[in-house]
Batch of 2 targets.
Target 1
Amino acid sequence: MCVLELIYHHHARYKYDYVGANFGLMISVNYKTYVKNIMSDDRYLTFVGAFGAVACSFSRFFWGFILEKKTFKFIYYAISLLNLFLAFTISFIEQIKQVYFLYVILSYICYGGMLGMFPAITSQIFGVRYGPQIYGILFFAFPISNLLQFFIVNYV
C-alpha cells in the first residue's frame, strides 16, 4: 500500500467513525432542540427521551449478547451503517411524530451499543488487568473534550 492509500483510508475511517459513533450521542443530548421549532409538545418529547433512555439501557444487554456471537467489527459496522442512515435521513422525517420517535429510539439503541461494547473489547485487547484502567482513561476523554470545546467556542 502506498502512502496516499494509507492517508485516504485513515481519513475515510475517521469520517466513518464520526458519523457512526457521534450521531447517537448528538441525538441523545439534542433530541428536543433539534425539533423545537417543529414540535411544540414538550410532554411528547419528554416521553420520547424517557423511552430512548430505557432503550439505551436495554440495548447494552442486547449488543453484549450479539458481541458473544459475532465479531466486534461486524457489530461496529452494523451500528455505524444504521447511524449513517439515521443521520442522513432524519431531516426528511422530523415533522412526523411517530417516525421521529422511532429515529430517536434507534439512535439511543446504537449509542448504547457503542458504549456497551467498548469495555468488553478493551478488556479483550489489553487483558483483564489493564483493560478497565485503559477504558477508564478513554471514557475520561468525554468531559475533557467537552470542557475544551466550551473554552474554544466561548473564548476563541
Target 2
Amino acid sequence: MTVNPWESRIRGAHGYDAVKKVNGRKREIMVDTQGLLLEVLVHPGDISDRIGGALLLNKFKESGEYPNIKIIWVDRGYKWFKLIEYAKNKWNIEINVAERQQIRGIWWPKDEEPPEIDKSFATKVGS
C-alpha cells in the first residue's frame, strides 16, 4: 500500500511508485489468520511489492519471534517464483498464493464450492 506523503510529514525515504503514480512510502504488513499484526515494514514507494515482500519476510524470520510458522498465504501481487523459491530455500517456508474465482459478481476461494445464489439476487446482478 502506498502512503501519500501529505498524510505524514515525518522525515524519511520517499520514492515514486510508477504503477500507482504516487510519490511516498509503502507499507508491507504480515498478520495472522485472525488479523493480528505480526510484522510491519515501511519502505520507499519505488521498491516493488515483490521486493518489499522479501524484505518483510527477512525481517519477520530474523526477529525469531515465530519460529514454527511454515506456511504463508499471500495475495496475487506477491506471486513471484523468485520470492517463493527464496522463502523455500532460505527459510523453509511454503508460500501459497490466494487465488480467487468469480461467478456473477461474487468472489470465493479457489478450493471451495461456489455459493448458492437465489433467483432474486441473480436478477439484481443482471444475469
